[in-house]
Amino acid sequence: MNSSLPNENKDKAPQHTNGPQIVPAATPSSGSHSSKGSPGPSSQYVVGVPPQQAVAPTWSTGLFECFDDIPTLIITAFAPCVTFGQIAEMVDKGQNSCGLYALLHAGILYFTGCGCLLSAYYRIKMSHLYKLPDDPIINILVHLICEPCALCQEYRELQARGFNMQLGVGWRNQSPEIQQSGGHTVPPKVPEGMTR
After folding, report:
1. Residue pair 161/130 in contact by the 8 Å Cβ criterion
2. What are phi and psi of 4, to 5 degrees?
3. Do the beta carbons of residue 62 and residue 143 sit within 8 Å?
4. Is a pLDDT exceeding 50 seen at residue 35?
5. What is the DSSP letter of 192?
6. Residue 125, Cβ neighbours under 10 Å: how many?
7. Per-residue pLDDT tens digits for 161-171
8. Would you report the helix, strand and coil content of the chain in percent, each value rounded to 5?
9. Which residues contact 173 (CB under 8 A, 6 or more apart)?
10. Residue ranges of E strands in the chain
């Protein structure tokens, strides 16, 4: 009866190979069931290969890093419509000019006091476009509570993505690489014809 145990262990012993192996994940023992009474789905993992880490999208700078760019902070504090116009022109890829977006924001701000809702809409649009943290409620609250900080963060994000955000430059005067990629990160081109 004990003689069958060594044979069973030979079948269950790990096989040594040169490449990665697919091994079934351990299933919970009968004493450690989940609260619903059924064990979780069985899964597999690969031995010898590190697990793929999903990189969570983040803003390139924090919300309260406004003092890193004092000129933008001053413009945004006294005329948020100007910074908003620059951001909206880049997010919309030059559909309309910075001046038109700035007038729209200023008009909504003057007549309703809710210019932050328009800028929150563009923050949500920017989040979708660049795969940034994308909770619409949080994005609206950020603009309602601290619109200058939110606008400065969006401005810095576009700068970090390679946009020339100086006043008067606009979409049409951006580099061809930025216009083609829309500010998405593009891998560098490797020169062809390289030999040993």
Report:
1. yes
2. -80, -20
3. no
4. no
5. S
6. 15
7. 888 888 778 88
8. 50, 5, 45
9. 164
10. 21-24, 44-47
Over the stretch 8-30, which tens digit does the pLDDT of each residue have? 555 555 555 565 566 555 555 54
- In this structure, are residues 14 and 48 in contact, taking their beta carbons and an 8 Å threshold? no
DSSP-assigned letter for residue 94 = T
Long-range CB contacts (< 8 A, 24+ apart) of 107-115? 109/80, 109/81, 115/80, 115/81, 115/84, 115/147
* 11, burial (CB in 10 Å: exposed 0-12, middle 13-18, buried 19+): exposed
The two tokens of residue 73 are: 């902070």
Q: Is the dihedral of CA 132, 139, 83, 108 positive or negative?
A: positive
Q: Specify the pTM.
A: 0.66
Strand partners for 24: 44
Nearest to 160 by CA among 94, 62, 27, 23: 62
Residue 89 near residue 104, CB atoms below 8 Å? no
Q: What is the rounded (10 degree) CA torsion for 109, 79, 150, 103?
A: 50
Which residues, 6 or more positions from 48, have their beta carbon under 8 angstroms from its beta carbon? 19, 20, 21
Give every CB contact of residue 182 below 8 A, 6+ residues apart in sequence: 93, 129
Q: At which residue do the structure tokens 């760019």 appear? A: 69
Report d(CA 86, CA 67) in Å as an integer: 19
